[in-house]
Amino acid sequence: MPTAPHPQSTDELHQALQENDRRPYGRTRTVTAEELVEAAEQFEEPVPLIHALFELQEAYTYGSEPRKSPVVFARLLTLFDEQPDVFDERLRHMLFWRFKWVANALLALPEIPLTSLHQWQTEMRDRYEKAGLGLQPSYGQAYQLAAHVGEDTALAFELWAGRARTRLSDCEACEICERALYHLAAGDDERALRVWEPVLAGKDSCQEEPARSISHALLPLLRTGSIDRAIELHLAGYRGCRRNPSMSGEVGRHLEFCALTGNEARGLELLAENRGLFDEVDSPRELLDFLTGVEVLLQRVELLGHGELPAAGYAGRTWTVAGLRTEVRTRADDLAARFDTRNGTTAHSDRRRARVDRAALLESLELTLRTRSLDDVATAVPVVAPTARTAAAVPESLTEMILQARALDEQGHPDAPACWARLRTLAATRDYTHPDDPEVGPLVRLRADLLADEAGRTGEKDGFAVAGALYEEAAGLYDDAASPGHAALARACAVLADAESVEDGAEAKAAALTAAHASMVSLHEKTSGLTPVHEARLLRLRATALGLRLQTSGSEENVAPVFAEVDLLLAFATRHDVVGQISGALLLRAGTYALSGDLPAAVTDVDNLLDRLKAHGPAWHLPRALELRGRLQLGLHNAEAAHANLTEGLRQAADWPAEAVDTGRLHGDLAEACMHLGRLDEALRHLTRSAELDMRHGSRTDAFCTYSNAAQLSLDLGRIEDCIALLDSLMAEPDVAAGELDDRLVAQLRLTRARALHAGEDLKAATAELVALAAESAGWDDDPGSHAMIAAETAVLLGESGEFSRAREAADQALAAHARAPRYEQLSSCLRELARHQAQQQGADNLADALAFLSDAGRIAEEAREAGYEARGRSLDSALAYEHGRVNAYAGEYEAALAALERALALLGEPGPEDDRADEWAECVRLAGAVEGIYLERPAPALTRLDAAVSHLTSLGHTANTEPLTALAARLRDEE
């Protein structure tokens, strides 16, 4: 089916070819190129057809379809032989350049005989000689053939590398890669890396570079000890080749790198992202490289005992790691054998075997901010942190196991969940036989216990409605088991969970909690024969309900009832020596003081609690108490003390399962303390640890929120590739891909990713992400302000890309959304940047359009004044005046530019000693001096302006701001 209407004129064809050239390589671009060749054949003149054929050959080459590239080139060569005059210098250059493309395409096909490869080498050499072209490119192809076949390459390398480059030589980046690979094959890692340095440093690049060089350089970097450089290049290089069929070999080497550095889990994640390559790669040589890298990864995963993990593989069936490895090995062995048969050597099988047999270079290496193990991939069951304490031994006797689980549960002991988990597994088996023991009770009692445990774990993950239903079901089973105390507790928990599930606003939730408390009081009064432990837990639930009501409402009138209930709980628990509820009551009281604003009293209570816990226990409450003290110290602006308390809390938490003491929250609080102390890298580590713990324990929304903060912090720290890799990993999560996560949270992740891509100078990818996000956010009728911000950023990137008509459309969308939810500073900044980009790129030709953006910015500034809005950053009026000056200067309207800059200076006024406007004022002076002294050729008044500004800034101590002014003044004096 045609992808677009056929062009009806050569102009339409030319436009269609340009549009297709902007598309990424792949099936859509290739099919369109095929259709455009058909369309070009209707025209009598051959030049449109030549252009279309060149576009089609490029699509085949970079779309990894080497079998088709030589066929297209044969048509071009025939046209050249028949009508050489229609090939202008550019077309002729392209034709001779692409002899090399055909050579590489034939090399990649094992069904092409070796004699045919040599014949093509001869054809290329003869054609170059006849055309009077230098032969260095021909010798380059001869060397590549020798390296591919596995012959002695020394002579071929010297004949190529020793010759001077010509206009038809491969680009410098590609030639550097070939030279480096020659030294790498000889076993000289260090020399190879020295040769590679200009490409790895980004000084030389092309369509395939530096991604190709990076993929080959990763292991040599590790072997020579350049570990940090290897990590950095892996993150950047993988992004440059992922999901690209023509770079599937490079993807394979990144998978291999993950496998050999203890990052098998990341390798499986990257494999899933590139699952399409199994079916999209038509180049046998690229496919062999890719499959070998895949096998290295799968082999490593299987050796580590995870052969039954799911793996992304060929379409049409579900794969395990072990099953896919067998399939991949068979296919890759066959490909290597086919190449070796064609070449008459064993080079490809030998190289493949060397890669597969290579031992791991590092047992572990933290490649990304989100480092996961295969255990994390293997199970959704919460993974606990390493512990220094020996967990309570689980009895072998089923009777003892049930009794121990109940005893631990009554204490609130952190080992109780593990006991219930084991019992749940045993009770679910077909041959389970319940103990006939009056102390254990009937099977229905155990089922009730297991349901109550499941409800508690569900509630901890904010699944309150489900938890409430489970508690109600457990209560019914407790009734059947004649356990009224347990039934009352389960019903009280259900009432509280139902109240917590209310999402109709703070007032409705507070009312629900009030009703829940009343229900629990009534239930307490009606239930007779409660044990002290059950009664203490009911009192704790009553106090918790009122504490949550205070937290929800923030109302001062709700403070006293909480203290009253806590005093009841504390008195009862003390009288009956219910140790866990004594510390629970003290925690609640300290928290209530904090919620009421009395932080010193809260600290005093926590200090008393810590003393009691150290003396009487329970020890597992220590991390929680230390965390609360740390949070209180943050509230008192004592970040050092907070950091010390939270660090000690984390140390104490190591003795207990992570979910029992909420280690993730401790890490989150420590991140906050580190931010206050300026320890940003440490904060980033705690954020990512907190997020991963939340993810493991099922609190996925909290985890994604924390990861979002971590991504933003890594971007602020300039760790751009870390930021992008983290976000790419999150976007690949199943619930994100399936659209199950909150769309606004996903949008924030995508927005941060777009900003990171832009910071990483990937303007095309950043713009594409923002354009898509702006289209989605246009439907956010409940949040027009966010759409205004996103559309504004999109407009700026489109302007930076030179697409000003689309930028105007995006800016208009932003303005329309701004009218509903004002974003004065964002819109003003956007419009000013658009005007600058247009004037800078197009000069006087489109000055009117640039000034139209500034006119819109002027209306925004006027609206802000009328609304009494005060900008947090630069004044909107002075910033606008400065931009008028800059835009007019770019367009050559220097008098208008100088007048605008004078206006900006007047709006700013001279800065004072502590004035944060000094930077802006100095820049206005500098640009005004340049316009006046250089472009208007009036150096005398410009120097007067500059000298006065330097004197004023120096007297105020703003010496750093004087340097550009002094440099400009020196230039003007030199030119006088």
Describe what you observe in this structure.
This protein is an all-alpha fold and 976 residues long. Helices cover 73% and strands 0% of the residues. A two-stranded antiparallel sheet has the order 1-2. The radius of gyration is 35 Å and the shape is globular. Residues 380-390 have low confidence and may be disordered.
What's the short version?
This protein is an all-alpha fold. It has 49 helices and 2 strands.
Proportion of beta-strand residues: under 5%
Whole-angstrom Rg:
35 Å
Name the helicity range.
over 70%
The global form is globular
Mean pLDDT: 93
Q: Main β-sheet, in a few words?
A: 2 strands, antiparallel
- In DSSP terms, counting alpha (H) and pi (I) runs of 4 or more, how many helices? 49
Report the structural category: mainly alpha
Unreliable residue runs: 380-390
Major beta sheet, strand line-up: 1-2
Q: Give the oligomeric state.
A: single chain
The first-to-last residue Cα distance is 69 Å
Write down how many β-strands occur, each being a DSSP E stretch of 2 or more residues: 2
Helix and strand arrangement:
Elements: H1 10-21, H2 27-40, H3 46-62, H4 69-82, H5 89-97, H6 99-107, H7 114-130, H8 136-149, H9 154-161, H10 172-185, H11 189-200, H12 211-223, H13 227-241, H14 248-259, H15 264-273, H16 277-280, H17 284-303, E1 310-311, E2 319-320, H18 321-343, H19 347-357, H20 374-378, H21 398-411, H22 416-427, H23 443-460, H24 464-480, H25 484-500, H26 506-526, H27 532-553, H28 559-575, H29 579-595, H30 599-616, H31 622-635, H32 639-653, H33 658-661, H34 663-677, H35 680-696, H36 700-716, H37 720-731, H38 734-737, H39 743-759, H40 763-777, H41 784-800, H42 804-820, H43 824-842, H44 847-866, H45 876-890, H46 894-908, H47 918-935, H48 939-956, H49 963-975
Antiparallel strand pairs: 1-2
Helix pairs in contact: 1-2, 1-3, 2-3, 3-4, 6-7, 6-8, 7-8, 8-9, 10-11, 10-12, 11-12, 12-13, 12-14, 13-14, 13-37, 14-15, 14-17, 15-17, 17-18, 17-19, 18-19, 21-22, 23-24, 24-25, 25-26, 25-27, 26-27, 27-28, 27-29, 28-29, 29-30, 30-31, 31-32, 31-34, 32-34, 34-35, 35-36, 36-37, 36-39, 37-39, ...
